[in-house]
Structures are given as C-alpha cells and as structure tokens.
Design goal:
Largest sheet: 5 strands, mixed
CATH class: Alpha Beta
Helix content: 40-55%
Radius of gyration: 20 Å
CATH topology: Trna Endonuclease, Chain: A, domain 1
Strand order of the largest sheet: 1-2-3-4-5
Oligomer: single chain
Number of domains: 1
Strand content: 5-15%
Structural class: alpha/beta
C-alpha cells in the first residue's frame, strides 16, 4: 500500500512540475503608475464634508470609488447585492504580493463606539471568509480620527482607516502604496 501512495505522490509531483506557469508574461503586464490624487483630494474632502451635512450614505461609496479609480487601482467593482455583501472589491497587480486580490472594502457611515466597530468588523470578516479574499479594508466616515485606534478590535487581516485618513494619504501616494504600508504596519508593527 505504501508503494501505491508513493507512486501517486510521484505522479502528482511530476504533473505539478511539468505544468505550465500560471502567470502573465512580463510583456503583457501593465506597469504600475504612481497615481496620487494631488489637488483632487481637496475636492473629495469637500464632498466628504457635504456628506456629513446631508447624511446621504450612498455618497460615501461614490466618494471612495472615485478616489480609488483615480489613485492607482486596476479595477474597482461595487457590490450588486446592496447590503448583502461588501461594498467594493479592488484589484491591483501591485497589491497581489501584499494583500492578494481582490481587496474587499466595507464602508460604514459611522463607527461611534466600540460596539458598532466590533459589529462592522464581524460583518466584514464574514464577507471576507465567504469571498475567499485574504484581506479587507474597513473605511468609515465618522468615528475616531485614526483607524489605528480601532485596529485592536479587528482581525489580523482587516485594515481599518477613516475615510478622511485615506483621502489625505492618497493626496501624495497611490492606493496600492497606502494599502501596502498599512498592511506592513499591521503585520510588522512598523510604519513605512
């Protein structure tokens, strides 16, 4: 019986080693463009302020989508399921080695206390596990000035950031760079 298992393992290993590589050739990969928002960040921050006055929750998702599309992501997709799934999914070749693809994003209007933050993290964690994605980002419009204040309640593979923090960071850096640095800080405890 051991011989048969050994033969099966040898066959599987041989098949694996002879299989073609599962990646795009270098010539077809799109080079990374460092796209920071620059002055667009001010316009998005103004829209965020108008949202605070109006309370229109759909406006938050639009602000985030617009920011991400202009800040170096390859693809941003909004959920077609409304409140039954994460709000956005982002793909970027640059993110692949750090957080994988897609990066799941949940946007909450307000995280005013630890209870609402824990509920949001639990909801996002369930989206993460059902999607097969490796990492997620929780964004919020109102709450602690720094998402780092909520990191302790999040799962290790959930990044937390206020929308204002994100827009300010995107002023000078591309989205994949912001996520890479946030992930490195989360995993290694060191700011890049």
């Amino acid at each position: 019986m051991w011989v048969n298992n050994r033969q099966a393992l040898d066959f599987a290993l041989e098949q694996f080693l002879s299989a073609p590589a599962d990646h795009q050739p270098e010539k077809t990969r799109k080079p990374f463009e460092r796209k920071a928002l620059g002055a667009q960040a001010d316009l998005l921050l103004e829209r965020l302020e108008r949202w605070r006055q109006s309370g229109d929750e759909g406006a938050l998702e639009t602000i985030v989508s617009d920011a991400l599309r202009n800040a170096g992501t390859d693809m941003v997709v909004a959920s077609a399921e409304g409140d039954r799934g994460a709000d956005l999914a982002v793909w970027s070749d640059v993110l692949q080695p750090f957080v994988g693809n897609p990066l799941i994003i949940e946007i909450k209007a307000r995280l005013l206390n630890k209870t609402s933050a824990k509920q949001a993290v639990e909801q996002l964690t369930s989206y993460l596990s059902s999607s097969g994605a490796r990492w997620a980002l929780l964004l919020y419009g109102e709450g602690p000035t720094s998402g780092g204040q909520l990191t302790g309640i999040a799962q290790p593979n959930v990044l937390v950031m206020s929308l204002r923090e994100l827009l300010e960071a995107l002023r000078m850096r591309a989205f994949p760079e912001v996520i890479r640095d946030l992930r490195n800080e989360r995993v290694h405890g060191v700011k890049s």
